[in-house]
Protein backbone atom coordinates (compact mmCIF):
# COMPACT_ATOMS: atom_id res chain seq x y z
CA UNK A 1 0.00 0.00 0.00
CA UNK A 2 1.49 3.27 -1.06
CA UNK A 3 0.47 5.19 2.06
CA UNK A 4 2.24 2.94 4.54
CA UNK A 5 5.52 4.60 5.47
CA UNK A 6 8.08 4.32 8.24
CA UNK A 7 10.44 7.18 7.44
CA UNK A 8 10.57 10.59 5.79
CA UNK A 9 13.30 12.96 4.65
CA UNK A 10 12.67 16.63 5.45
CA UNK A 11 14.74 19.78 5.15
CA UNK A 12 13.94 23.10 6.84
CA UNK A 13 13.54 26.28 4.80
CA UNK A 14 16.79 28.24 4.65
CA UNK A 15 17.43 31.90 5.47
CA UNK A 16 16.82 32.90 1.83
CA UNK A 17 13.68 30.81 1.37
CA UNK A 18 11.95 33.95 0.02
CA UNK A 19 14.35 33.98 -2.95
CA UNK A 20 12.92 30.73 -4.32
CA UNK A 21 10.69 30.38 -7.34
CA UNK A 22 7.05 31.31 -7.21
CA UNK A 23 4.29 32.07 -9.68
CA UNK A 24 1.73 33.23 -7.15
CA UNK A 25 1.27 36.75 -5.79
CA UNK A 26 0.56 36.07 -2.14
CA UNK A 27 3.41 38.20 -0.79
CA UNK A 28 6.80 37.42 0.69
CA UNK A 29 6.97 34.50 3.12
CA UNK A 30 7.87 35.15 6.73
CA UNK A 31 10.80 32.87 7.57
CA UNK A 32 10.12 32.62 11.31
CA UNK A 33 6.54 31.64 10.60
CA UNK A 34 7.64 29.18 7.89
CA UNK A 35 9.98 27.53 10.40
CA UNK A 36 7.15 27.19 12.93
CA UNK A 37 4.89 25.68 10.27
CA UNK A 38 7.70 23.33 9.25
CA UNK A 39 8.17 22.23 12.88
CA UNK A 40 4.45 21.45 13.18
CA UNK A 41 4.57 19.56 9.86
CA UNK A 42 7.45 17.44 11.21
CA UNK A 43 5.57 16.83 14.46
CA UNK A 44 2.55 15.67 12.43
CA UNK A 45 4.70 13.18 10.50
CA UNK A 46 5.99 11.88 13.83
CA UNK A 47 2.43 11.56 15.08
CA UNK A 48 1.86 9.37 12.01
CA UNK A 49 4.72 7.23 13.37
CA UNK A 50 7.36 8.25 10.86
CA UNK A 51 11.00 8.46 11.82
CA UNK A 52 12.44 11.67 10.35
CA UNK A 53 15.75 12.12 8.55
CA UNK A 54 16.30 15.87 8.77
CA UNK A 55 18.86 17.30 6.35
CA UNK A 56 20.55 20.61 7.10
CA UNK A 57 19.06 23.66 5.43
CA UNK A 58 20.71 24.69 2.16
CA UNK A 59 20.94 28.42 1.42
CA UNK A 60 22.54 27.60 -1.96
CA UNK A 61 19.12 26.36 -3.01
CA UNK A 62 16.24 28.45 -1.65
CA UNK A 63 13.66 25.90 -2.85
CA UNK A 64 15.41 22.93 -1.22
CA UNK A 65 12.84 22.58 1.57
CA UNK A 66 10.57 21.15 -1.17
CA UNK A 67 12.40 17.80 -1.01
CA UNK A 68 9.63 15.83 -2.68
CA UNK A 69 10.70 17.16 -6.07
CA UNK A 70 14.14 15.54 -5.89
CA UNK A 71 13.24 11.85 -5.81
CA UNK A 72 10.53 9.29 -6.42
CA UNK A 73 10.64 6.58 -3.77
CA UNK A 74 8.76 3.31 -4.02
CA UNK A 75 9.36 -0.04 -2.36
CA UNK A 76 11.00 -1.56 -5.45
CA UNK A 77 12.25 1.50 -7.31
CA UNK A 78 14.00 4.64 -6.11
CA UNK A 79 14.68 7.36 -8.63
CA UNK A 80 16.65 10.58 -8.31
CA UNK A 81 14.92 13.20 -10.42
CA UNK A 82 16.31 15.91 -12.67
CA UNK A 83 14.30 18.96 -11.60
CA UNK A 84 12.86 21.03 -14.40
CA UNK A 85 13.82 24.41 -12.95
CA UNK A 86 17.55 25.06 -13.57
CA UNK A 87 17.96 26.73 -10.16
CA UNK A 88 16.87 23.47 -8.49
CA UNK A 89 19.22 21.07 -10.30
CA UNK A 90 21.81 20.98 -7.50
CA UNK A 91 19.24 19.92 -4.88
CA UNK A 92 19.53 16.27 -5.88
CA UNK A 93 23.19 15.91 -4.79
CA UNK A 94 22.51 15.75 -1.06
CA UNK A 95 19.35 13.69 -1.50
CA UNK A 96 21.32 11.10 -3.45
CA UNK A 97 23.94 11.05 -0.67
CA UNK A 98 21.31 10.83 2.05
CA UNK A 99 19.58 7.89 0.36
CA UNK A 100 22.88 6.17 -0.24
CA UNK A 101 23.70 6.64 3.47
CA UNK A 102 20.43 4.86 4.25
CA UNK A 103 21.44 1.98 1.95
CA UNK A 104 18.80 2.88 -0.59
CA UNK A 105 19.97 2.22 -4.15
CA UNK A 106 18.87 4.75 -6.72
CA UNK A 107 18.71 5.20 -10.47
CA UNK A 108 18.53 8.62 -12.08
CA UNK A 109 16.62 10.60 -14.66
CA UNK A 110 19.16 11.66 -17.29
CA UNK A 111 19.33 14.55 -19.74
CA UNK A 112 17.34 15.51 -21.80
CA UNK A 113 14.71 14.29 -19.34
CA UNK A 114 13.45 16.58 -16.60
CA UNK A 115 11.16 15.47 -13.82
CA UNK A 116 9.90 16.92 -10.52
CA UNK A 117 8.65 14.54 -7.83
CA UNK A 118 5.61 16.78 -7.37
CA UNK A 119 4.37 15.48 -10.71
CA UNK A 120 4.31 11.87 -9.54
CA UNK A 121 1.32 10.41 -7.72
CA UNK A 122 1.59 6.86 -6.40
CA UNK A 123 -1.91 5.41 -6.23
CA UNK A 124 -1.36 2.01 -4.63
CA UNK A 125 1.39 1.03 -7.06
CA UNK A 126 -0.22 2.66 -10.09
CA UNK A 127 1.75 5.82 -10.82
CA UNK A 128 0.23 8.90 -12.43
CA UNK A 129 3.05 10.81 -14.09
CA UNK A 130 2.32 14.46 -14.80
CA UNK A 131 3.80 16.14 -17.83
CA UNK A 132 4.09 19.77 -16.84
CA UNK A 133 6.19 22.89 -17.21
CA UNK A 134 8.76 21.02 -15.07
CA UNK A 135 8.45 17.37 -16.16
CA UNK A 136 8.96 16.77 -19.88
CA UNK A 137 7.93 13.74 -21.95
CA UNK A 138 11.44 12.36 -21.93
CA UNK A 139 11.63 12.47 -18.13
CA UNK A 140 8.15 10.99 -17.85
CA UNK A 141 9.08 8.12 -20.17
CA UNK A 142 12.34 7.42 -18.32
CA UNK A 143 10.45 7.22 -15.04
CA UNK A 144 7.72 5.02 -16.55
CA UNK A 145 10.38 2.62 -17.81
CA UNK A 146 12.04 2.39 -14.37
CA UNK A 147 8.72 1.85 -12.62
CA UNK A 148 7.36 -0.67 -15.12
CA UNK A 149 10.58 -2.67 -14.94
CA UNK A 150 10.01 -2.87 -11.18
CA UNK A 151 6.49 -4.20 -11.73
CA UNK A 152 4.43 -1.01 -11.28
CA UNK A 153 1.92 0.37 -13.75
CA UNK A 154 1.93 3.97 -14.98
CA UNK A 155 -0.24 6.49 -16.80
CA UNK A 156 0.75 9.93 -17.99
CA UNK A 157 -1.37 13.01 -17.38
CA UNK A 158 -0.56 16.10 -19.41
CA UNK A 159 -1.30 19.12 -17.21
CA UNK A 160 0.33 21.79 -19.37
CA UNK A 161 -3.04 23.25 -20.25
CA UNK A 162 -4.56 22.92 -16.78
CA UNK A 163 -4.60 26.41 -15.27
CA UNK A 164 -3.19 27.34 -11.86
CA UNK A 165 -1.29 24.17 -10.99
CA UNK A 166 2.47 23.82 -10.94
CA UNK A 167 2.60 20.05 -10.54
CA UNK A 168 0.19 17.16 -11.04
CA UNK A 169 -0.04 16.74 -7.27
CA UNK A 170 -1.12 20.36 -6.92
CA UNK A 171 -4.39 18.96 -8.28
CA UNK A 172 -4.65 15.30 -7.25
CA UNK A 173 -3.68 13.06 -4.33
CA UNK A 174 -4.09 9.37 -3.62
CA UNK A 175 -5.91 8.45 -0.41
CA UNK A 176 -5.37 4.73 -0.93
CA UNK A 177 -8.52 2.57 -0.98
CA UNK A 178 -8.68 3.21 -4.77
CA UNK A 179 -9.62 6.83 -4.05
CA UNK A 180 -8.07 9.86 -5.70
CA UNK A 181 -8.71 13.43 -4.60
CA UNK A 182 -9.04 15.72 -7.61
CA UNK A 183 -9.77 19.32 -8.49
CA UNK A 184 -12.57 19.80 -11.01
CA UNK A 185 -10.25 20.43 -13.96
CA UNK A 186 -8.64 16.99 -13.48
CA UNK A 187 -11.54 14.96 -12.08
CA UNK A 188 -12.76 13.89 -15.53
CA UNK A 189 -9.36 12.90 -16.89
CA UNK A 190 -9.49 9.49 -18.55
CA UNK A 191 -6.40 8.34 -16.62
CA UNK A 192 -8.46 8.55 -13.41
CA UNK A 193 -11.45 6.60 -14.71
CA UNK A 194 -10.75 3.48 -12.65
CA UNK A 195 -10.56 5.41 -9.38
CA UNK A 196 -13.25 6.77 -7.12
CA UNK A 197 -12.88 10.54 -7.27
CA UNK A 198 -13.05 12.59 -4.08
CA UNK A 199 -13.95 16.08 -5.26
CA UNK A 200 -12.48 19.29 -3.94
CA UNK A 201 -14.91 22.21 -3.89
CA UNK A 202 -14.17 25.23 -6.08
CA UNK A 203 -12.23 27.70 -3.96
CA UNK A 204 -10.58 24.90 -1.95
CA UNK A 205 -8.24 23.67 -4.71
CA UNK A 206 -5.10 24.10 -2.62
CA UNK A 207 -6.41 21.41 -0.25
CA UNK A 208 -6.19 18.80 -3.04
CA UNK A 209 -2.50 18.43 -2.25
CA UNK A 210 -3.10 16.32 0.85
CA UNK A 211 -1.07 13.30 1.95
CA UNK A 212 -2.25 9.98 3.34
CA UNK A 213 0.32 8.78 5.88
CA UNK A 214 -0.56 5.56 7.64
CA UNK A 215 -3.74 6.18 9.65
CA UNK A 216 -4.00 9.92 8.95
CA UNK A 217 -4.46 12.36 6.12
CA UNK A 218 -2.37 15.51 6.38
CA UNK A 219 -4.29 18.41 4.89
CA UNK A 220 -3.75 22.16 4.58
CA UNK A 221 -5.69 24.11 7.22
CA UNK A 222 -8.44 26.51 6.21
CA UNK A 223 -10.49 24.30 3.87
CA UNK A 224 -13.47 23.22 5.98
CA UNK A 225 -15.53 21.67 3.22
CA UNK A 226 -12.71 19.34 2.21
CA UNK A 227 -12.00 18.44 5.84
CA UNK A 228 -15.68 17.50 6.22
CA UNK A 229 -15.45 15.35 3.09
CA UNK A 230 -12.45 13.48 4.51
CA UNK A 231 -14.24 12.96 7.82
CA UNK A 232 -17.37 11.67 6.08
CA UNK A 233 -15.19 9.08 4.33
CA UNK A 234 -13.82 7.96 7.67
CA UNK A 235 -10.36 9.52 7.51
CA UNK A 236 -8.64 11.15 10.47
CA UNK A 237 -7.32 14.49 9.21
CA UNK A 238 -4.49 16.53 10.64
CA UNK A 239 -4.83 20.13 9.43
CA UNK A 240 -1.62 22.10 9.05
CA UNK A 241 -1.11 25.77 8.38
CA UNK A 242 0.82 25.99 5.11
CA UNK A 243 0.48 29.72 4.38
CA UNK A 244 4.20 30.53 4.06
CA UNK A 245 4.87 27.57 1.76
CA UNK A 246 1.82 28.36 -0.34
CA UNK A 247 3.38 31.78 -1.03
CA UNK A 248 6.26 29.91 -2.68
CA UNK A 249 3.98 27.65 -4.76
CA UNK A 250 4.59 24.77 -2.37
CA UNK A 251 2.01 22.20 -1.42
CA UNK A 252 1.87 20.07 1.69
CA UNK A 253 3.24 16.94 0.02
CA UNK A 254 6.39 18.62 -1.24
CA UNK A 255 7.85 19.18 2.24
CA UNK A 256 8.73 15.52 2.72
CA UNK A 257 9.94 12.43 0.93
CA UNK A 258 8.10 9.55 2.50
CA UNK A 259 9.26 5.96 2.27
C1 LIG B 1 9.20 25.65 -7.11
O1 LIG B 1 8.65 26.49 -7.83
O2 LIG B 1 9.88 24.75 -7.56
C2 LIG B 1 9.05 25.78 -5.61
N1 LIG B 1 8.97 27.14 -5.23
C3 LIG B 1 7.82 25.05 -5.14
C4 LIG B 1 7.87 23.57 -5.38
C5 LIG B 1 6.70 22.87 -4.83
N2 LIG B 1 6.81 21.48 -5.02
C6 LIG B 1 5.77 20.64 -4.93
O3 LIG B 1 4.65 21.06 -4.74
N3 LIG B 1 6.04 19.36 -5.13
Describe what this molecule looks like in 3D.
With 259 residues, this protein is α/β, with parallel strands linked by helices. The protein has one domain (7-258): 5-stranded Propeller (L-arginine/glycine Amidinotransferase, Chain A), CATH 3.75.10. The protein is built from six helices and 15 strands. It has helices spanning 31-47, 92-101, 137-149, 184-187, 224-232, 243-246; strands at 7-10, 51-54, 71-74, 77-80, 107-108, 120-123, 126-131, 153-158, 172-176, 179-182, 196-199, 211-213, 216-220, 236-240, 257-258. The protein has a three-stranded mixed sheet with strand order 2-1-15, covered by helices on one side. The longest helix is centred in the first third of the chain and has 17 residues, at 31-47. The mean pLDDT is 97. Bound molecules: citrulline. Residues 20-22, 63, 66, 68-69, 85, 88, 118, 167, 248-251, 254 line the site of citrulline.
* Named CATH topology: L-arginine/glycine Amidinotransferase, Chain A
* Level-2 CATH architecture: 5-stranded Propeller
Shape: globular
Low-confidence stretches: none
Give the structural class.
Answer: alpha/beta
**Distinct bound molecules:** citrulline
Amino acid sequence: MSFRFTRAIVRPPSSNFADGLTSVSLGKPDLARALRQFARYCAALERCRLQLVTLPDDPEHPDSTFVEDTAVLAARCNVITRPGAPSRGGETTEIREALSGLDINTVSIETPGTLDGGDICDADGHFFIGVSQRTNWDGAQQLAAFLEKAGYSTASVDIRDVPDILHLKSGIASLGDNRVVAIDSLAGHHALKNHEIVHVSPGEEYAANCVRVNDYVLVAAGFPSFERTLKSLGYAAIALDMSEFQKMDGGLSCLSLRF
